[in-house]
Amino acid sequence: MISNFSRRSISTLIHSNSKLIHQNSSRSYSFNLFSIISNHTDNRNSQKMSQERTVVSTPNAPAAIGPYSQAIKANGQVFVSGCLGLDKTTMDFVSQTDVSAQTQKALENMSEILTAAGSSMNKVVKTTILLQSMDDFAAVNKVYSTFFPVDPPARSTFAVACLPKKALVEIEAIALA
Asked: Cross-referenced InterPro entries, in alphabetical order (predicted)?
């Protein structure tokens, strides 16, 4: 790397036809300055690109109900916040008691967010499902399988004490952009 060489070495390099020979013990190393600078610049650009973070927001899904984004797009991935079975207009659940209806709507909302991010349900690699009751596992699976009929993503499912707005189900995802 350039930082490992003294100014004198770089100056010598520039004046000696863009070749640097660095003596270290009994070894001799030859470097092309322009190659080093190019690689250094490429690495910095790669780091900058990998550090880009884009907030994803769409009016086609319910707005976040707290200080978080619907999704974040970063490093070639989309991180979708937990989706609830809320109607985007009324911000009410499509059903207070039917976990299947809430699951259907949560996954539809997720699909809209992924579309806004330039992704899709087919690119989901991991989901996490949070349930108010593990007794709803089979009902959620029945709906879930219609959204991921072939090669479903990796998944974790947990029963929790309470979900936002007393939801019956919440689903988050990680997808490829």
From this structure: RidA, RidA_CS, RutC-like_sf, YjgF/YER057c/UK114
